[in-house]
């Protein structure tokens, strides 16, 4: 059986195309194990953590100096479980999963011989460590799936056993999850992050963040398919895949799998084109698979909401959100690891904006998505007519709609995006550019051979128009277009600035480009 692009969990080199799992980190991690340290590995979901852990445990066992196993704590990750019950779940799970990595005398003790108690997990690990003729290395996955007292109890048991390592406790423990250790305090006790002098968090020596795939790693992954099948990913196709996925491991594999398996049905004689990548991207967004759908939960969190709002608006961040919220969103993989702060990749950007504006989109009257009224006889988009319809709708409904909207600060932009999305679903697509602090949101509507640049701005001061003209002209250069639309939203209520004074249209020329300015 040929290898394939894996999108469903643990990777292994016999079945799947794979990027080298350790990504240059093995030596540093091995040094911490040698030094009897406890450390943390964190990365967003579906970025290769489980594959990394399994490969690490197997490698340590093959080299013969340590006994290593992976254990997941996820099965106790629900709020109502007690500490004693969680401890029993932990040792049962560890006994079962250890058999994937070990056999015979290296296996942990039979858990049925143990009685429940608040120190059961520590005692079990202590007994196992004492029975082995090699130091134990334990890789503990899904630590941050635990809640409240259970999470604190686990970490305290690790801290208590730390002093007796390696003869009486694991020589090295890796805590693995979505968040860095600084987040565990908040996650464990949101109402009381300070847990006192007996902190269970002071045994961590180092923290590792698993990065997304580099350009070279994505190219190497795709080349494995070419080596196996002869089917090539051209430079143009590679660039599209890397652009849309941003190196995110699951997205990279999902795009390639969508093309090779779903669209081409494993016919390796067919040529892969850049247009297929665009279609694959749209299909993934429409399917909203679990990985992408999980973003919906994140955007409801207040720390995430602040960052998302600033990205969509293009507004600066409040200073008090800088350290906490940005780091949190970066740990979750939602935004770029470096400035400028923007969504981590175009697919996340599209999914998040669609999640936010879907209630708006579903509330539009049915006639808005009927195609006849905004197309000419040749089936081309009449953008003036479409935007005039939006202005009319916005004038009638925006104040009442935005008042009910969770993201009301970015609601003006989201309302237009929802309106356009409802329309272009009939045969086009929208691409967006946005980042914290850039003062704008850029949209490009693609319809057949038409490309329509649109820039959205909030009216803050006398510089809004001049800044918008300059910024839109640059965006039009990027798209190779000579006409675009600048839409400027007024935030004053209609009681202060009546609609008859607010809504107007102006035709401007900037750097030789024609720009229609719509005030509203």
Describe this structure in words.
With 520 residues, the chain is α/β, with parallel strands linked by helices. It has 19 helices and 11 strands. A 6-stranded mixed β-sheet has the order 6-7-8-9-11-10, with helices on both faces. Helix 8 packs across helix 9 and helix 13 (302-313) crosses helix 14. The radius of gyration is 27 Å and the shape is elongated. 40% of the residues are buried. It holds the Pfam family AAA_35.
CATH architecture of the largest domain: 3-Layer(aba) Sandwich
Number of strands: 11
Total domain modules: 3
CATH superfamily of the largest domain: P-loop containing nucleotide triphosphate hydrolases
Determine the structural class based on helices, strands and strand pairing.
alpha/beta
Please summarize the sheet with the most strands.
Answer: 6 strands, mixed
Protein name: AAA+ ATPase domain-containing protein
Please tag this protein with its features.
single chain, 520 residues, alpha/beta, Rossmann fold, 3 domains, 6-stranded mixed β-sheet, 5-stranded parallel β-sheet, 19 helices, 11 strands, AAA+ ATPase domain-containing protein
Topology, element by element:
Blueprint: H1 26-34, E1 38-42, H2 49-63, E2 67-72, H3 83-98, H4 120-131, E3 136-141, H5 148-162, E4 172-177, H6 182-188, E5 204-209, H7 215-229, H8 235-245, H9 249-263, H10 274-287, H11 290-293, H12 295-298, H13 302-313, H14 322-331, H15 346-363, H16 383-403, H17 411-424, E6 428-434, E7 441-447, E8 450-458, H18 464-479, E9 483-489, H19 499-502, E10 504-510, E11 513-519
Helix pairs in contact: 8-9, 8-10, 9-10, 13-14, 15-17, 16-17
